[in-house]
Structure formats: structure tokens, C-alpha cells
Design goal:
The protein has helices spanning about 35-45, 55-70, 140, 150-160, 160-165, 200-205, 210-225, 245-255, 270-275, 290-295, 295-305, 325-340, 365-370, and strands spanning about 85-90, 95-105, 110-120, 125-130, 170-175, 235-245, 260-265, 310-315, 350-355. With about 375 residues, the chain is an alpha/beta fold. It has one domain: Alpha/Beta hydrolase fold, catalytic domain (Rossmann fold). It has a 9-stranded mixed beta sheet, sandwiched between helices. α7 crosses α8 (about 245-255). The structure holds zinc ion (ZN). Zinc ion binds next to loops.
Length: about 375
Amino acid sequence: MNESMQTPETMNQGKNLGVQNDAPKRFQTSLMMHSYMQQRFKNVARKDGFRAENIPEFKVWKENLGNLLRDITGYNTMIPAPLTPKITEEVKFDDYLRQRVEIQTEPGVIMPLYVLIPHHISPPYPVILAPHGHGSGGKSAVAGCREDPIIAHAIDHFNYDYGLQFVLEGFITFCPDARGFGERQEFASKEDICSSSCQWINNMAIPLGQTVTGMWTWDLHRLIDYIETREDCDSTRIGSAGLSGGALQTLWAAALDDRIKCSILSGYFYGYKEALLDRYTNCSCNYVPHLFECIDMGDLGALIAPRPLLIESGTRDPLNGASGLENVKSQIKIAKRAYHLFNAEDALKNVVFDGEHRWDGKQSVKWMNQWLI
Ligand SMILES: [Zn+2]
């Protein structure tokens, strides 16, 4: 991975930020805040986590936690607006048509996206939302746009073109630019197509009661509103799939909207303490005020129950945290308890593959076919 391919999520991979033995002498570890924060996490974390013993209790918990998460992310501050969709470009390929579409998600907030429409079957098509993570040039890598060599490299390195992979299997696939990425970068990060503006947007948003996470979730839900207006989409069969920050988007969007019937999270399902607190230099978009106090990531997975959820984990993905797959399993265990309440254990699957931080995808099409077709 060259320097331009490094992402805010992967920049510190390999470093154990909890160990400062190699720190320059001017640093005294006793003066640092990390251990203080670890202790605070231990004292206050996860007070709103999943503890229901039956389905009625689960439903009450789900409604209350949903409201809480919409509050702390600023989702509740977002303003509905007419979608006013515009198709601005169409490009034909051998197996699919690519539309560039713009929709309005809040007053004056425009989200550009690619829609990949399969040729070889008849509409209405089953639908895949394919949000991107970091280092993808926004929607470009996911949609398989190889014209820019940096994005072509990202596709090869991370197997990033999962949007293209889904359209070739007969799904109409929506690849949006999240706020701060691709065509939606702020000036502070426009020099590099693969960089992002998460930190700059959060710097502006958090003092105003909003977060990047809330904005992304809101925009994906408005995208589903748009999908429901398209005659070529079967909006009863909507799946969502993403790598890394695209899994973050899928996780939150599915946790807070039952219209997403089936989900795949790749490289983003692990305990907050090891993965986001101990790895405190991760990108700003991972951090929501009060999040660690309320829940752990497994609780977001529990909110999705009993809808099908596949989680891909690489054996050597440094973002899993210091204990690796153990930090994944602890969260699977939380979510699994929710699926168990519904006797839906087979709808939650953790696929562990030998590798680093990348889209594996070997079971993704099968998973969507199994549950959406
Ligand atoms: Zn970010």
C-alpha cells in the first residue's frame, strides 16, 4: 500500500497505541490520558446495551435505543426535503448501465450517486446499497471506475468494486458518495481524491449537535426513499453491503431502518474499547458523543435482529484491535443473543477469512441471493 492508499483507518495499523515503551524520552506515559480514558470506559460504558430476555422486551429496547441513537448522532436534527432526483449521465457497459444521479437529502444538500442497472434480467430488480469506506474515491472504487490509477489500485488492493460485483449478479446497485468523500469533499481535503473530510465536517458538526455518522445514516435512508420511487427497483428486497466505513454506514443504516432486509459488514465489527478507544487515532467519523457510554458495536448488530446479517472478518485485520478476532467474537456474542430470541441464529453469520483489511466477498452474493431472491 503506497502513501496515497493509506487511510485514516489504516494509518496506524501495526502500532499498539496502548504500549508506549518506544516513545521518545520527552514523553512520560504517566502524564498521558490513555489509561485514564480506559478506566473511564470501564466505569461508564454500555449502559444502554442489549439485555432483553424476550421479544417484547427487545422491542421496547429497540425503540428506546433507536431514539437515543438518533439524538446523539444528530439524526433528529436533519431536515427532510423533496428528493428532486436528476439523472445527469448514462454510460453503457457490456453488462450494465451506469447512471449518475443526484438526490436532495436535506434542503440544499445534494448526494451524487451511481446506479448500476443490470442488462440481462428484467425489472423490478432486487436492490443493493453499496456505501464506500475510506480510500475509495467515494463511490468510484465501489462502482468499478478504473480510469484513475489510484482508484484502480484501491480496487485491486481492497477488492473494492463490490458494487460492480453485485450488478453483474443481477442486483440494481446504488453507490453513493457519503458526505466528505468523492465529489463531496470539503476544500481541506480536495487535493487527493482518496482522502476524506470526515474530521473537518465533524469539527463543524459536533458543536452544532450533529455528527458525520448521523449525516451518513440520514442520507442512506433518503436514498431508500428514492429507491421506493423507482419502478425498476423492488423495494421489498433491499440489501446493504460495505467494507470498512461502508460497513459503518451499513451497520447504522440497517440498525435504524427495517427497510434494509439483509446486510453485509466487512472489516467493521469489533469492540469499541480495543478498536476505537485504544486505537484513538482512527478517523473522526467513528466517534459520536456519548456513544461508548450507551452501547458497544454488538448492540448495533442486535438492533438488526432478526434480519439477516453477514459479518466478514480478516484474520490479520489490524482494525480488529489488539486481541484480533477475540474482539470480534465478543460483539458477535452480543448480537447472537438477540437473534436467539427470534430463533433466527442462521440469519447471523461471521465469515472469517485469511487476510487483512479488505472485502472478501466469497459468500456475499450467495448471502444476498439466499435472503433477498
Ligand atoms: Zn472517516
